[in-house]
Amino acid sequence: MSSPKIYYDSDADLGLLKDKRIVFLGFGNQGSAQAQNLRDSGFSNILIANRVDHYADYARAKGFTVEHDFGKAAEQADVLFILIPDQVQPRVFNTYFAPKLKDDVCIVVASGYNVFFKLLNFKPTQDVVMVAPRMIGSSVRSLYEKGRGFPCFTSVEYEGTGNAMSLALAVSKGIGATKAGAISSSAREETAMDLFAEQALWPNIILLFKEAFEVLKEAGCSDEALCYEMWMSKEPAEIFERAAEDGFILQLKHHSSVSQYGQLNGADKLDGSAIRAHFKDILYNQVLNGKFCKEFSAMEDALEKEGLENPLQQLYAKNEASIMGQAEKRVRARLANII
Ligand code: NAI
Fold first, then answer.
1. Tell me: the pLDDT tens digits for 64-93?
2. Which GO terms describe its molecular function (predicted)?
3. Degrees (nearest 5) of the Cα angle 8, 12, 16?
């Protein structure tokens, strides 16, 4: 497999966005950051499409014009950023925007999910590009303000006008992403990695921590010592920070020799075949085949139509009742002044 292209400022022409009406649907984490960055890159022709809520007030406070009538905003857009939560995008876009958009509009998404699972109804004449920062919105803004870039995935998902890649790069540069290098990707790749991390990697990490906690507690370790040892000291956060700086394995050199040998020798002896099979099962039979997406959409529909209790609350309650959850609650209450 060849290495993906990495695009820098010199690959992009901001002039392509000149004279274009740029509409942001949403002024939340990403919307507020990207709209402000784009304005500071020299574009004043920005309109914020937002329902009546505190995000709209915030956009006005930042000096933007806000349109609550989504149809009116859609009619004007030459470039449309869709920056509202993924689960509400299909309903809002398909109902209010799709019927009113120009035939040659460039639609920009910051996540591959709705494009990969074909949940947005756009026309074949329209461009759809992905410009997906790998950063939370506040960092997208603060890094731009410091004159630095941020990691970002850029791709053309649907080519309508023949100009989609140039527009994707202009947008990437305008929001400040090509300063650090925007990596050529795809909605499939972004969705696969995102959902795999969420549904395979991190669930296993949660499970490993819970099991480790219970085994060590049974062996006589106190809740207080365990909470600090395992996460409250922030050691795992530091390890990942070092991994980003020095290398995933080479960060081990900051640990004691006993630790380095224990970790590398321990990992070498483990048989990964069961977890690999489990990971493949999640990736192919739950993520990429759309099974999760279908189930999640059905759940969202039912929650909205029938006003059911969100299962997330039950899942939080279940975790709070677990041995590790109870222990942490007690330790945090006791050590409230220290943490
Ligand atoms: P957010 O949760 O901050 O979105 C808030 C905005 O959505 C507000 O403008 C609000 O008025 C609007 N909104 C919420 N519910 C609505 C509804 N039912 N109807 C109409 N408008 C509604 O969204 P966030 O986190 O900025 O995500 C936007 C996109 O960026 C998503 O595709 C997400 O996957 C992607 N993304 C988010 C990152 C993050 O740091 N949060 C990182 C990279 C990508």
1. 999 999 999 999 999 999 999 999 999 999
2. ketol-acid reductoisomerase activity
3. 160
Q: Quick check: 153 and 175 in contact, CB under 8 A?
A: no
User: Beta strand pairing status for 152-158 and 127-133?
Assistant: antiparallel
C-alpha 87 to ligand 1 mean position (Å): 9
Tell me: the pLDDT tens digits for 283-327?
A: 999 999 999 999 999 998 888 888 778 889 999 999 999 999 999
Helices H, strands E: what count in the chain? 16, 9
Q: What residues have CB less than 8 Å from 47, skipping those under 6 apart? A: 21, 22, 23, 24, 64, 65, 66, 67, 73, 76, 77
Q: CA 104: distance to chain centroid? A: 27
- Quote the ligand 1 centre to 86 CA distance (angstroms): 7
Confidence of residue 335 (pLDDT cuts 50, 70, 90): confident
In eight-state DSSP terms, residue 11 is G
Tell me which architecture the domain covering 6-185 has in CATH.
3-Layer(aba) Sandwich (3.40)
Residue of the CA atom closest to atom 14 of ligand 1: 84
Protein residue closest via CA to atom 42 of ligand 1: 136
Displacement of CA 158 from its chain's centroid (Å): 21
Count other C-beta atoms under 10 Å from residue 283's C-beta.
Answer: 17
Q: 133 alpha carbon to ligand 1 midpoint, in Å?
A: 13
Domain-by-domain residue ranges, the chain?
6-185, 190-337
Burial class (CB in 10 A: 0-12, 13-18, 19+), 227: buried
Ligand 1 proximity of 110 Cβ (cutoff 6 Å) = yes
Q: Give the Cα separation of 53 and 60 in Å (integer).
A: 11
Q: Whose CA is nearest to atom 18 of ligand 1?
A: 88
Q: What's the half-sphere exposure (Cβ side, CA atoms, 13 Å) at 292?
A: 20
67 pairs with which residues across the strands?
Answer: 49
Q: Is the CB of 90 under 6 A from ligand 1?
A: no
